[in-house]
Amino acid sequence: MNERASAFASRLQLQGISLGIITVFLMILLLLVHESWWGSILAVASGFLVLLLAAYMLFDAALFRLIASHADETEGCRAVDTLLAQLHLRKLPQTTRMLDARMRGTNQLLAKLHLAFGVFLVLFAAVTTYGLWGPQ
After folding, report:
1. Which of 60, 100, 127, 130 is least surrounded by CB atoms within 10 angstroms?
2. pLDDT tens per residue, range 39-81
3. What is the pLDDT of residues 4-20, one digit of tens each?
């Protein structure tokens, strides 16, 4: 079992679930308050982007758990490539990307998730505090 892949998958799962739960809670709060209708819609739309990225993060966590379930890192990465090809999400590559390259790519996705969550929080704060476009 690959401990690095397992630890990375746990980190991704924690990030995806926690940011997703916070986002859902704040989106519900926005829809109940109705301070600024257009501002709420804009903030909720950005919240859906955060939820989409969080779901993608949970999918990646499952893929890293698949890598971790194999004794050999190369074998695990090849199993992920085969699964993605069977699901028609990616073509089967000629060469197998190793764990470090996959982790770098997922870290970029994690940065996008954090950026989207930050934008959502700014919009949430603007809507709840200032009404974004004034009183409606």
Report:
1. 100
2. 778 888 999 999 999 999 999 999 999 999 988 888 989 999 9
3. 899 999 999 999 999 99
Collapsing DSSP states into helix, strand and coil, what is residue 92? coil
- Whether residue 135 is contained in a domain is answered as no
Assess if residue 45 is contained within a domain. Answer: yes
Residue 81 lies in a domain: yes
Give me the domain span that covers residue 82: 3-130
71's CB contacts (< 8 A; 6+ apart) are: 1
Please give the full DSSP string across 36-49, using - where no structure is assigned: SHHHHHHHHHHHHH
How many CB atoms neighbour CB 96 within 10 A? 18
Is residue 136 included in any domain, yes or no? no
Which of 98, 93, 71 is closest to 82 using CA atoms?
93
